[in-house]
Write a structure and sequence with these properties.
- Strands 6-7-8-3-9-10 form a six-stranded mixed beta sheet, sandwiched between helices.
- The chain starts with 5 loop residues before the first strand and ends with a helix.
- It is α/β, with parallel strands linked by helices and 249 residues long.
- It has a domain of 75 residues.
- It contains nine helices and ten strands.
- 36% of the residues lie in helices and 24% in strands.
- Bound molecules: adenosine-5'-triphosphate (ATP).
- The site of adenosine-5'-triphosphate has 11 residues, from strand 2 and helix 1.
- Keywords: ATP-binding, Nucleotide-binding, Transport.
Length: 249
């Protein structure tokens, strides 16, 4: 079996007496969608923050592409290809959709944001940025400011930005939140396709989406993983049903 892209071992994080992450270990393998589910306050976002680098773990290791990234800041992890999206919006609201993606393309190319104004017509930025917008179905809205896009369109734009960074793994925190049933369906099939580009750690409350997408599901309760397995294993696990899935399984 291929090596894990992301490997978390015995991660711990407390806020005062509260153990928000209490010895979490998990792996993300190539081509995989690994869903992380659990009740409100279980510690899902806290875990994503520690992986992305916006929050420092108290102890434990995080390996990405075979390298210990625990000492790297968020920007350095992003440069290695760890793409995080959704709960914190990365959009520059006053810029068009196209400009938002161009900024991401430029960041990946390593040039300074200072020169952005002078390169708005630079084909090395506009062409890949437009290609990303086409891929997420937003090409016709390229020149609309981010602030004027609908909720669903902003989600599509966030994915285009994540794609522009050539990610080696996605960290998605509740992508379905606020989407209507139609939007969720479309986003589900898009994420399904996206797994071929890079594997995905997916925090999601929408169980239809989780059950449709996940190769593996880990259930977090009070900072601990109480079960990890395939969708079928998780749906039939009595502890999980009791702790979380009771009414939806
Ligand atoms: N910066 C912080 N300071 C103190 N406590 C925090 C902090 N961040 C999170 N917590 C607490 O840690 C626990 C886990 O929170 P977290 O947001 O990670 O849960 P979650 O599973 O993502 O919840 P939800 O599904 O509602 O988003 C909660 O009890 C929360 O109140």
């Amino acid at each position: 079996m291929s090596e894990p892209v992301l490997e978390i071992h015995d991660l711990r994080k407390s806020f005062g007496a509260l153990k928000a992450t209490d010895g979490v270990s998990l792996e993300l393998r190539p081509g995989q969608i690994h869903a992380l589910i659990g009740p409100n306050g279980a510690g899902k976002s806290t875990l994503i923050h520690q992986i992305a680098g916006s929050l420092k773990a108290d102890s434990g290791t995080i390996r990405f592409l075979g390298r210990d990234i625990g000492g790297l800041d968020m920007a350095a992890r992003a440069r290695l290809g760890l793409a995080r999206s959704f709960q914190i919006s990365s959009l520059a609201q006053e810029f068009s959709a196209l400009r938002n993606v161009m900024l991401a393309v430029q960041a990946r190319q390593g040039s300074s944001f200072r020169f952005f104004r002078q390169v708005t017509d630079d084909k090395t930025l506009t062409e890949p940025a437009m290609a990303m917008l086409e891929r997420v179905g937003l090409a016709t809205r390229a020149h609309v400011p981010a602030a004027e896009l609908s909720h669903g369109e902003r989600r599509q734009l966030e994915i285009a930005i994540a794609l522009a960074l050539s990610p080696r793994a996605f960290l998605f925190d509740e992508p379905m939140a606020g989407m209507g049933p139609e939007g969720s369906k479309r986003l589900t099939s898009f994420l399904d396709e996206l797994r071929h580009q890079a594997p995905m750690l997916l925090v999601e409350h929408d169980m239809d989406a989780v059950f449709a997408l996940a190769d593996r599901v880990s259930v977090l309760v009070y900072g601990r993983i109480i079960a990890s397995g395939t969708v079928d294993e998780i749906r039939s696990d009595p502890d999980v049903r009791r702790a979380y899935l009771g009414e939806t399984a």
